[in-house]
Amino acid sequence: MMFAKKAFVLVLFFLHGYGCSQEYKITDQIYFDVHVDDGYLGRIVFGLFGEEVPKTVKNFKEIALNGIDGKTYVGTKFHTAIERLLIQGGDILYNNGTGFSSIYGKYFDDENFTIKPDSSGLLVMVNHGPNTNGCQFFITTMAIPWIEDTNVVFGKVLKGAEVVHRIEHYKTDVNDKILRNVVVTGVGEITGAPFYEPSKNYELTLWAWIKAGWFPLAWSFTILAFFQMVIKRLDRYIEIKEGVLPTQEKDKKA
Fold it and tell me: Per the UniProt record, which residue ranges are transmembrane (predicted)?
């Protein structure tokens, strides 16, 4: 009964958050094909908010499709992951999180903070202080309200949220650097008419977490079921050893 109440509250929370979400125009779509080690992991499709932050979107799109001095996002790594927070990539210079470069120079200014980082799956600029945006970005895996006045949100994940969450759960070192080789191997543009999308996307987050975690979840339930069976058999064994069976207990009470 308690579980049902909690589940009901969770559903209401998701529906409420989705209904209250502000809509923004998706002006451009860019996709990343991602490999981990030697295997294909999947495709992430980003919708870019070119109406709210046109300068930031232009920078990301130009680097993705044409590059700076021949360097695009192809070959860059998702180098950092913090579980239940974000994954980070986009360092076209050093591929380790220390490089900054933009189509406007080394840095460019914060455009605005109109769109809030209040959901999973948002595309956000990396900086190391005010007005120090470059080529790096991160993808939120939860709401991060404490950066709403420091980091520019300029897009969202339209497809491939499960890929993001898989990357998020890879093992990292003490500095949150991913221990596996997670590389962008292909980049392209999806053409089409602009359309509006809510910045929040709870159903994407919910289903992505389910997809990403189905195996450990299933394995946990299997282990629990096994131990429950063992405990029942032990109880039965003890009853037999003591010479008291459930039917005998009923007879005694009668």
Answer: 206-227
The answer to whether residue 4 sits within a structural domain is: no
79 within a domain of the structure (yes/no) = yes
Residues 196 and 220 in one domain: no
pLDDT level of residue 21 (50, 70, 90 thresholds)? low
The pLDDT score that the predictor gives to residue 126 is 99
With CA atoms as reference, report the closest residue to 201 among 44, 12, 22, 52. 22
Q: How confident is the model at residue 199 (pLDDT cuts 50, 70, 90)?
A: confident
Q: What is the DSSP letter of 107?
A: -
Cα–Cα distances in Å, from 127 out to 8, 42, 87, 106? 39, 27, 14, 12
Predicted TM-score (pTM) of this structure: 0.75
What is the per-residue burial (b if ≥16 Cβ within 10 Å, else e) of 155-191? bbbbbbbbbbbbbbbeebeeebebeeebbbeebeeee
Alpha-carbon distance 101 to 138, whole Å?
15
Q: Which tokens in the block code for residue 145?
A: 């309200």
Task: Of 112, 121, 111, give the one whose Cα is nearest residue 156.
Answer: 121
**Under DSSP, is residue 135 helix (H, G, I), strand (E, B) or coil?**
coil
Tell me the CATH number at 121. Answer: 2.40.100.10
